[in-house]
User: Fold these one by one.
Assistant:
Number 1:
Amino acid sequence: MYSAAAAAASPPRRDFISITLSPEEAVGAGGYNNSKAWRRRSCWRKWKQLSRLQRSVILFLFAFLAVCGVISYTSMGEPWKSLTNKSLDDQRTEPEIPGLKLANPAVLPAPQKADANLGDSPELSPQKLPKPPHVRHGPSNLQIKPPRRDVKLKTRHDTSRVAEEPVQADKEEKTEKSVISWRGAVIEPDQSTESPSSKIKEPEKPSSVEAEDQKEPVPINERQMAVIEAFRHAWKGYKDFAWGHDELKPLSKSYNEWFGLGLTLIDALDTMWILGLKEEFEEARKWVVNDLAFDKNVDVNLFESTIRILGGLLSTYHLSRDSLFLEKAKDIGNRLMPAFKTPSKIPYSDVNIGRGTAHPPRWTSDSTVAEVTSIQLEFRELSRLTGDEKFQKAVDEVMKHVHTLSGKNDGLVPMFINTNSGQFTHLGVYTLGARADSYYEYLLKQWIQGGKKENELLEDYMRAIEGVKKHLLQRSQPKKLTFVGELAHGHFSAKMDHLVCFLPGTLALGAHNGLPADHMTLAEALIETCYQMYAQVETGLSPEIVHFNLHAQKGHKDVEIKPADRHNLLRPETVESLFYMYRFTGDKKYQDWGWEILQNFNKYTRVPTGGYTSINNVQNPSNPEPRDKMESFFLGETLKYMFLLFSDDIDLINLDKYIFNTEAHPLPIWAPA
Ligand code: DMJ
């Protein structure tokens, strides 16, 4: 307490501020004593020796500093917090493979509009990627874990180790416009579409994403390795003898040109992505950048170029998020549009993509029903991505028109439709095989793609399946295999194309999406039949067409093959359905059946110098008569479905997020509005 006596006793005050303590003062009379009590006493003494003004200034300074501290703490809080979260995020997205440094972790930006500057597209180099400006985690259910480069077949024991070995995967991109991650198909489909004209929005992050992000990758197994090896062998042939051309002729070591658009290469792009074949993908991408030109005076088939080229480019865009592919998709999409300029708006079969003209085949003004009704998934998706509704409008109109047409038989459609009148022609013949097959497939798939809202599509699909049950289902002898025959002017034929083997997969997909359980029962019966179409044949490979025995005859199997039908074109349909069946049931027998088929492809269709070939005679194991042609769908579909069939990772192209087009190119399912 301050008093006059104390004031008199205290040394004269100097009115300046100094808090410097000299060593002598600090040591004091008692010499150096570093005890805590001494230090406290000494400080107090010094404090007391200060003038009032000095003390006030010091206290003011402390108070001022304290206030500043509080203010800066609150304003720094947010950035600090986000910094902390970001580093946590970074930890969460650490690559699963030690040593693989992913600058772009499982995250992709919203789809870019196709008019993004092509020149800004990155050279695809999955290795070393710049961080995108804003980081969003894609769901791991869309993450495809890449196999190692230079994969070699390993024993089961080795496989997990292989998948854990470091992968050199970082490389520079030219810009940040497109982001590519070899973490896999790390897309979150942009689910914002309600109509093609609606503006593209940033997809929302599903609530479960963070938990999913932490899921362990599923290692590639031995059978998948075998598929990779088969793909590489096929690719070697294509690269050595047919690079940039439509199809490989593996025996003559040359190529076949159909549209002159590198069909095999484009069809195979997303397969390479899914299989994790980075180097091959990068090489192919360079070809697309430098050599793929649609400005060509060439007639292309609308359906084939839509499902293989447009579909292949769109799905590759979705998987890689590389705007190059969207740009090319938009280009080919626009060039195909003249096909719809017909009196009925039912498109012509052929388009000259350089001249912008379209026409039907020379001998008729009809189009094939399956062709005009199996281009919808692709054109609808193109509208969604570009915001240009004309693509979707054109194909939706076809579906609406077909929905109203007469000439159906309990939902079953004839095979031809006239581009002038818009009416079905050649009435009375009904099949689930060639010329009608994917009409049924796309009814269901469009309904799923659009968020299960377009009731007419579902109606037509349900009616058609009832029509199949009523008119086309029969059982063979002796094994009582359920099969889908054909109806011609009231007469049942026990003929079934291999193409019909898409049906078990489609039925299973419908059942998975809430359609009646008996669709799944039928799927199970039909896939058994499709397998028997392989198993009952000498090479273990199915012919193009079989005839089933309706009556038991001694020494006869269920399956009969006519000489004209005993070729095998390396088609995918059975493997495709095996994939769906395994995904939805988990029954390993489907994987085993697929494995048998792969081995038989290797045994009878593999050409030692590279590539696989179609064969003419599945009944002659000692000479299957190679045809010298590898169809693009062998890489686009058959091997892709094989790889997916052998995977136990349901998130490897999750069927609740993606819908496969009829050429096995996955496209995103749109979210419900
Ligand atoms: C492919 O082009 C498509 O799967 C199409 O739907 C049918 N034909 C071949 C495969 O067999």
Number 2:
Amino acid sequence: MSGLIIGDREYFKGIGKISFEGNQSKNPLAFKYYNPTQEVAGKTMSEHFRFAIAYWHSFCNDGGDPFGVGTKFYPWNKSSDPIQNAKDKMDAAFEFISKIGVEYFCFHDVDLIDEGPNLVEFEKRLEIITDYALQKMKGSDIKVLWGTANLFSNPRYMNGASTNPDFHTVAYAGAQVKNAIDATIKLGGENYVFWGGREGYMSLLNTDMKKELDNMARFLHMARDYARSQGFRGDFFIEPKPMEPSKHQYDFDSATVLNFLREYDLMEDFKLNLEVNHATLANHTMAHEMQVAANANALGSMDANRGDYQNGWDTDQFPVDLYELTEMMMIFLDTGGFQGGGGINFDAKTRRNSTDLEDLFYAHIGGMDAFARSLLIANNIMNESDYLKLKEERYQSFKIGKGEEYSAAKLSLQNLHDLAHKLGEPEQKSGKQELFENLINQYI
Ligand code: XUL
Ligand code: CO
């Protein structure tokens, strides 16, 4: 990572490059565990994580919620000229990303620049701001992990985007996705994401679900074909979420999305971008979602955050829970990392009442340190404890005798019947959950 990228005006004054100082440091603006060049399980931390900053939460979100207007009066959000405003925001973004020492960022089309009154104007503005981004990226190590189109905020998408019952709106969504793919390719983006916030329904009474799913699949095929025709070689990711803003979202969870991808012949190009708080909303752990994806070679990428476990909405808080993260990192290491070209994108926002600019640094430092520490813990559990052995031992009976024949598909149901008669009632074997749980606590 080369030097700091500061525009005409420095936004995060008094804060320099954040460095690793170790866990004895009392400097709140230093990493205690995230040491980008430290090797863990054959890769450096920065190679494992490929951290990314979410443009929308960090530079666009003003802290507004359904009960009150914004609280964050960002100095880069002051110009009345939308183009100047977008450039100021980008200056702030590159300054922040270079100071925190992250290699990637992720964006929605409308995060980069306000879409303005019509499509012609939006396309013009996107050209200008992506030219500006290219200029800023040149000579830096900052790259795009993924781009996406925001097909959920504008009122035109209130009945859905690719699943809208009105074809005219589907066409508009198509134009927006084409432009977002073009922008992603222009900026050398490594992947492209679909998150379908409005791709679902509010009431099944007025919804032809089969038609909407067919249309969504057709749309994804078209987007894939277009991007490939333009030379894009990266992965496409679908980001599951069960609800919010739709009552029911079609991309409910890992298993549902995998089924959709298989049914519509999209497995080859699409993998999953899993988000912790979305897993929570689906009543799963993130570890569960990751394992389901990993089983299908579809653990593509991750949106890092956490939910609030006392309430049921998408709070997008920064990750801090070591126990949860360690369970995630155990699967991550076991899988050998992402199975696509993804990374860990902080789809997380500082709280409405965290209004100092430096809070953005504390939040990301905390998240990156929590991941780093969990990776180290997970690696120790896998290498130094009996964890892997204990887990394997539970399945030992499939490695010998008739169990081995069963695994090799050499037995029939009749064989199982005859065997059960011969062997009688199985002996009770403890699952030893508490023993497994204790290992995590011990290594933390
Ligand atoms: C919404 C969400 C989105 C996607 C990108 O819950 O996670 O920000 O990550 O559209
Ligand atoms: Co997300």
